[in-house]
Amino acid sequence: MAVQGIDDDKVSRWLVDNVDGAKAPFTFDLIAGGRSNLTFRVTDASGTRFVLRRPPLGHVLATAHDMAREHRIIAAVGKTGVPVPRALGLCTDVDVNGAPFYVMSYVEGEVLDNADKAPLLDQSLREQTSHHLIDVLAELHSVDVDTVGLGDLARREGYIERQLKRWRTQWENSKTRELPAIDEVEARLSRHVPEQQGVVIAHGDFRFGNCLTDVVNGRIAAVLDWELCTLGDPLADVGYIGVYWSDGPSSALRANDPTPAGGFPTYASLVDRYARTTGRDVSQIDYYVAFSCWRLAVISEGVYARYLHGAMGEQGGIDLSTMKLGPEGLAERALEAARRLS
What we know:
CATH superfamily of the largest domain: Aminoglycoside phosphotransferase (APH), C-terminal lobe
CATH architecture of the largest domain: Alpha-Beta Complex
CATH class of the largest domain: Alpha Beta
Structural class: alpha+beta
């Protein structure tokens, strides 16, 4: 059965020729949850599993979904103590599959991307696993970017300024309506940019929902989804966790996180743990939460626009009216936090 986004014959030949030990025939299954790059589980004739990543179907913005860049990042991070899948191969020949793609190892684990998944992680392990999540982030931020060969990945300074410019442009290119809160938040953030504390590998989308969790041992098995990764301000990743983290059902900003189910430590305690581990000043973390809400509002609008225009293919089960509300809610949350800045 044909799988949308995969040219079975050509990709199969490429896998045999380029991935050590891969044996045809292969089966390809879309892994649920991909609203950006498409992720497929690949199973070969011997039962060995791999993961294949490719851009979404249809037109995308020129700077988005760079497979070679994402492959380079996970290959580099794989040299460190940060848990990531192994990079197994990169295909930049669009004649093979209509778009570049890369292949990485399959890692066992659960993606805890909503409260309904929380029961997969025993209550007794939730604090321990949360601590490991923030410790993995601290480990990532301790990596010497030059030693792992990522020193030229992006400019080293002015991360927030660069991000404000990038996502403003992205907003102008993908917006489907005007949201005044987007403009006001950008203005407030631009007036209060904190001093950047060092240059680190900034994941850009770090949260439980982008990790594979070993729910038996209460540890992060692998960090996924590196497409927004760059060099930048470490506090941006810490602030981003705060967009999703819930200290109780009433404080949840996003539905796609396990923490509203309860039993997890507070966001403030994670921020404190990060500060103790890294020695970084976290006193302006509210700025980074506001920035992260604003940026995610822009990203969510882009996803909504692609679905609205049919560029994501036939994936079914998508409620566009609900999706439309996402950027609005995030923009308002960002504005609420930004108005507290002095």
